[in-house]
Amino acid sequence: MANDKRTGGIAWAGSLVGSENPNSLGYRYSNPAKRYRKAGDEDEEVQLPTNIVVQFQNRQGEELANNLDIPTASSIDDLQALVHSLLEQQDDDDENADKKIPYSFYAKIEKDGVLDDVEITSTLVDFLKSHEISTEEVLQLTYQPLAVFRVRPVTRCTDTMPGHTEAILHVSYSPDGKHLASGGGDTTVRFWDVNTSLPKFTCKEHKNHVLCTAWSPDGSRFASSDKNGVLILWNPKTGKPIFSKKAHRQYITSICWEPMHLNGGKCERLVTSSKDATCKIWNVRTQQCLLTMSGHTDSVECVRWGGEGFMYTASRDRSIKVWTAKDGDVLGKLVRSLKGHSHRVNTLALSSDYVCRTGPYDHRGTKFASDEDAYNAAVEKYKAFKDQGPERLVSGSDDYTLFLWHPASDKQPVKRLTGHQQAVNHIAFSPDGRYFASASFDKKVKLWNGFSGDFITTLTGHVGAVYQVAWSSDSRFLVSASKDSTAKLWEVPSGKRARATLPGHADEVYALDWSPSGASVATGSKDRTIKIWKH
Question: Do β-strands 156-161 and 530-534 pair in parallel, antiparallel, or remain unpaired?
């Protein structure tokens, strides 16, 4: 006892021992390095009041009811019930569907002089304690609707589709989820029947690896490009090429279609980016190149056509450039350059990617009588999405970091996001824009707040580099494809460990897509097969 430096001897510390005072054992070791708290000590844990005054408002800042005094122990379910009852009071006459809509709640918190929207994930008490928020002031809570439908998590492999003779580099579902297309190292593009999981067409026009593919937002055309710089447009209903063109001097790195709500429902323009440091805008109806955008000094790795009428290009020259693509404006005029990365920029993701990709279609599988109806549906869908605020762009780079931008209005980044320990490979925004996920060669997937860029959690479990991530259409699940020959399913934002592992491939999983209808996930691998996963 004597030679243990930390113990100071035994001190008497209680009067009643035993049943009367079970907390006191009558003595304790007095440790000089430790100060004991006596009752009534100043730094007792702060007891929060049982109630707090809150003010609810929607994303547009319109207030709901007056200030309300609610218990600090309220959970998210309690807050939801409260918002539902308040909304019902407001529109009694309405046959109100809002009753069933789930909500998420955000509070504005000042960090380092910047106001951030922080999501409440458990109860108000935990939230107030973790962010040290004063209960004296009125707490502003913003409520945001979540998806009404739920996608069921995929867990079992229902089909394995052989056919490709080399590694599969791309799989993608059409916007309505009714067709599946794949492209790979064997120079073919293949269309598959989603219902029977059987091959429909094998298209053998390309003479080199098929490097990128893209569906038009109305699902009527499919574009693919190869390592020789050839762009081919396909009719997915017949499997025949509509046209084939040598589009660039070197290989094409990325293809993106113009969003449907911007083009009057015509879906006839697309943009390609290439290793030759240029981007070209094509009209697929007239088969003409409308414009070549040059300005980058090295290979353009990624191009995105945003929902606000801008195009974004990311390059190995470490910059991201913003170009006009609005009606009534000069097409392809350079607006601004976004600089900040210290190494090549690999990937871009827009908060509106999913809305632009799926065009007029949603989880209900609606059919449209005319192109006009489809166009109007796409416009309505984008309007509803736009209420969230400005379009956000995230870029990922070989410098291990991500940047969050408001590219339509500002050339300064909103935030620099660090944490990955290897190059960032792929980024994807959730369909509702609330989160984005980044995949990296460091075997991790990281999850971030889609509005403020705050880090949420790291999803660990893969034992090889993570190549790609895809979201379910209700934004509640995420699936990742990895070099370790598996895909993993994660629950968002709660899951740190994988909800399920999707094994079965014999080699690295390069390609991944979750059907917009939510029904199935397709994975494509170096083992030359595509696997379909369902609930």
Answer: antiparallel
Residue with tokens 């589009």: 247
- Contacts (Cβ under 8 Å, ≥6 apart) of 300: 253, 254, 273, 274, 275, 277, 278, 279, 313, 314, 315, 316
Q: Is the pTM for the entire model greater than 0.85?
A: no
Q: Please return the burial class of 387, using the count of CB atoms within 10 Å of its CB with bins 0-12, 13-18 and 19+.
A: exposed
What are 498's two structure tokens?
């994988």
| Distance (Å, whole) CA 162 – CA 414 | 45
What are the pLDDT digits (tens) for 108-122? 877 766 677 778 878
2-20 tens-digit pLDDT: 555 555 555 555 555 555 5
Angle at 420 between CA 170 and CA 501, to 5 degrees: 50
Which tens digits make up the pLDDT trace of 487-506? Answer: 999 988 777 788 889 998 99
DSSP string, 94-161: S--SGGG--EEEEEEEEETTEEEEEE--SBHHHHHHHHT--SSSPEEEEEEE--SS-PPPP-EEEEEE
Which residue's entry shows tokens 């945001």? 144
